[in-house]
Design a protein that fits this description.
By secondary structure, the protein is of the alpha+beta class. The protein has one helix and seven strands, in the order βββββββα. A hairpin with a 3-residue loop joins strand 2 and strand 3. The chain starts with 7 loop residues before the first strand and ends with a helix. Strands 4-3-2-1-7-6-5 form a seven-stranded antiparallel beta sheet, covered by helices on one side.
Length: 95
Amino acid sequence: MSAQEAVLALRSVKLNGRRTGVFAYPDRIELVDEDGVRAIPLTDVVRISFKSGVRKGRLTITTGEGPLEIRGLRMRDVGVAYRILVSLAADRNRG
């Protein structure tokens, strides 16, 4: 799938300190960086949380392997990304 088919596309954010693209699909989250693509099934997501600062915010996706901290989001984008990811995870875990 391409970024155009993704429900959520976060380009040029930092994931655990590395420049990454984060793309959410109805069944998975893809992390794209210089090492390649890593897919995380939404059924592996344990928790999604966010924190907003003065100008920037961060989003944390916790899986069975540990937390993935996404930084570099504008404040207005943090809440939107959070709601989309929670909705996708809830739909996926329900079905």
